Amino acid sequence: MIIVVLVLFYQNPNSESINLDMNRKIGTVDTSLASPIMGSSNAPITIIEFGDYQCPNCKKWFLNTKPDIKSNYIDTGKVKLVFVDIAFLGKDSIPASIATYCAEEQGKYWEYHGFLYSNQLSIDNGWANSDSLKGYASNLGLNMDMFVSCLDSAKYQKRVEFNTNEAQRNGVIGTPTFFIIGPEGIQEKVNGPQPYSVFEKIIESML
Fold this sequence. Notes:
Blueprint: E1 2-3, E2 25-26, E3 29-30, E4 45-51, H1 56-64, H2 66-74, E5 79-85, H3 93-104, H4 109-118, H5 130-139, H6 144-152, H7 157-169, E6 174-175, E7 177-181, E8 187-191, H8 196-206
Parallel strand pairs: 4-5
Antiparallel strand pairs: 1-6, 2-3, 4-7, 7-8
Helix pairs in contact: 3-4, 3-5, 3-6, 3-7, 5-6
């Protein structure tokens, strides 16, 4: 697990317009500015993932554990997933998170999210710089005028900062960290890229 030493690399944010449910709170976490929900909004169990797109252990979980959770629990309506940025590992972490929300404007948040983890290399080596982020958008067939304008203006920087602060407020000290929240607010915390069996045991105990 990557341990957080929270150093944010701020740009000057422009004003932003976010049309989200500002009352969306799941367990102890305010997810109103987090990712779109993956899965059914009516699923009885929620997994909140706190991650940085430059975190190698986050990529490990994305590749090795998430696919089975998605097929067995998300796609079957039992679990929904929300991603909360904690952008702290390097200067390209915040722009990478901003880029996902620029993709969300065109209905491609989760596709872009997956593209970032699939293409992740070492921290700040250029794989998540501005040119690379624009290249990924082009590969996904996004409207490039819209995407470039959004990314270059750092339109969603305040959103990323809010999520990073929310992670810190909830005691997240490393990535990835997961909160699994069941009926009646039962909440379990999982640290690090744990295998599928760890999540399966917790989820089954909540169903």
